[in-house]
Every structure is written in C-alpha cells, then in structure tokens.
Amino acid sequence: MHIVCVTVKVKPGMGDDFLKAIQENRAATRHEPGNIRFDILLSAEAAGVDDPEEYLLFEVYKTREDFTAHQQTAHYLKFRDTVAEMMAEPRKGAHYTVVEADPL
Predict the structure, then answer these.
(1) Angle between helices 74-83 and 15-29 (to 10 degrees)
(2) CATH class of the 2-97 domain in this structure
(3) pLDDT, tens digit, for every residue of 8-27?
C-alpha cells in the first residue's frame, strides 16, 4: 500500500469553497480502481477568525503508481487548479509505505 498525507492550509474565508472542491475530488477518487481510502480531516485546534483552516488529506492507494495515475485524472487536475488561489501556503505532501497496520 502507498499512503499519502497532505496538509493544506486554506486562506481565511475560503474554507467552504475548499471543502466543496475537495469533496468533489474525493468522490471521484473513490471510484479509481487503485484508491482504497480517502479521508478529509479538519484540524480540531482552535483557530481564530483570521487564521487559515488546516486540513489533512489521508489517501491510501494500492501502489505508488496508482497515486501517480490519480494525479493525471481530470477530477484531480480540476481540483488542483480550482484550489490554487485558496492556499494560505503551499500544500505539503508526505508519502509512506505501511510497516504495520490494522486492516482497512
């Protein structure tokens, strides 16, 4: 399995638009044959009105190649372009392989 964790900080006031875009991307991604899981997590830390919202995208694919294929899909490219101006800072992605885990 190939795990991707992406931290996204969204500009204040753009959270609703970001959430709509990521939910559309997630729904389409879940139909990809190589995708096993795609969770959208919102930071539970108390943030002020002027602070960016922080999301964690937790994505699980059968292989790294499946993730690479995901990045070429029309729905991902649409998402990427739609949210580009919503970012408070560049998103940060980290890739992992499973060492030990409970079954998904």
Answers:
(1) 170
(2) alpha beta
(3) 999 998 999 999 999 999 99
